[in-house]
Structures are given as C-alpha cells and as structure tokens.
Amino acid sequence: MQASSAPIHAGATRRRAWLELLRPANVATALADVLAGVSVAGLPLAAAGASFVPLTWLLVATACLYAGGIVLNDVFDRAVDAVERPDRPIPSGRIPVTHASLAGGGLLLAGVVAAAAAGPIPALVAMAIAAAVLIYDAWGKHHPFIGPLNMGLCRALNLLLGIALVPSVLAGAWPLALAPLTYIAAVTMVSRGEVHGARRPVVVAAIGLVAAVVAAVVVVIATRASAQDFTPLHHLWALGLTGWLAWRVLPAFWRAAATSAPADIRVAVRTGVLSLVLLDAVIAASYAGIMNSLAVLATGLLAWRLARLFAVT
User: What is the pTM (predicted TM-score) of this model?
Assistant: First the structure.
C-alpha cells in the first residue's frame, strides 16, 4: 500500500507546486480586465451572441499571458528567492528551472495565438503584452520608477485586449487604460517592501495614486451619466462599487504606511491585487450596466477563493 501510494503523493505534490508557481488567484484577476474591456467595447456579456467565441479566445489569451509572466518572473528571480523565499517552487527544487522556463515561454506564445484567433488587432495587443511582460521580468522590475510603470502597462494593455474585440472603439477609449496602469503601478511600488519593509514616503505616494484613480473613475461615472442607457440605478451601483474599492484598498495602504512592516505591506499588496477586480467592475458598470459588472465581480470571487489556497505574491 505504501509503495503504490508514493507515486500518487508525488504527483499531488508536483501539481501543488505548479499551482503555487502559477498563482491562480492573480490569473483570475486578469480575466476581469478583459471582461471590463469588452464592456467598454459595448458588448453585453449576458447576450454575447456572435462575440462569444472570440471572447472565449481572449479569456484564454489573458490567462495564458498572465500565467506565463508569473512563471517567468519566478524564473528570473530564482537567485533572489533562494535567499529571501526558499520555499517557493523553483528555489525549493520542486520544479526544475528548465521546466518552468519552457512553461513560461510556452504560455506567452499560447496567449498570442489565442488572441490571434479572436482577430488581428487583439493579436497585436497580445504581442505588446508579451513584450511588456518579458521586459518587466528580465529588466524593468529592478528599477524603482520604471518597474511599477512597466507592471502597470501590462495591466493597462490587458484592459485594451478586451476593448480590441471591437477595434473601432480603441481610438476613443484607450485613455481608460490609464486607470489600471496607475493603480497597479501604486500596488507595485508598495510590493517592493514585502520582504524588508517599505519606506513610508513610497507608500504614501502610492496612497495618493490610488486616491487619484478613485477620483478619476468618479469622473468617468459622472461623464457616463449622460448616456442614454445609463440609468440612476446604474449610477448608484457604479458609485457604490467605487466606494467599496476605496474602502478596501486605502485603509490597508494607510496601515502599511503607518508601520512599514513587511507583514502589513504583504496584506496591502494582496488586497490591492485582488481589488483590481473592483476597479474593473466599476468600468464595466459604467459602460455596460450591472450585469456586466456582476460577471466581473464573479472573477473576483474566484480570485478570493483561490487566494485562500495559494499565495498572491
């Protein structure tokens, strides 16, 4: 019995290691970006119709691109992780670095191919995401100013990937991508202190950026209020989601600024990453109504459940 159970146990251990490496909660938040982008493009998710197949391809694309970026991030960080986080899958030896490298590169390629199945413009955006991911993993993250902007660009492009399902909308809607760019740049600024703590001015600056994003989406909601299909109920719903975003993120960041302790920094980063779904839900509610925002929130529920099982950072 013991001999026969050993391979099963080893297989379960390998699966667990791969899931830890892929950080599935983070991947779930990438789905929210695309769903928000599709909402900006004017496609109601409850009645996707002919757009269902290309939307499915985009969801596959964003999951592969994000997962590939996460894997390659750990590949490039393996020497640092061996000192600071030796329990991670690569430095602990549970996943060979060659296997991780092949998986990360393969996922990025699969993401571009999946996006191409949705159309040529989504394919171009996916290639831009893959390039931004590689630049961040190999070089950008080591720079205190460029790194956060680089990571924010990855998520901004992810929103544009959803909008690209209707290419004619991209020209007028691209400024919306500044919201996730700024928000994730702020979260990334804070994340640099997860191991050794963060400098208080950096976290305070991040708080200011998040507050600016909250103010910006309120302006977007007010602007959208004049749209024919934007009812008072939609207006209240979008404002409520914005308040929820601020309530979740700002206190966590403020606590991190007050203590600068690594534990509080990690909580703030985890909260910030998972709460990106709320920003996406606000965007979806502002452009396509309550049902689309609920679809986005569903990915947040999935991310929250997965975050209880696997690390986010």
Answer: 0.93
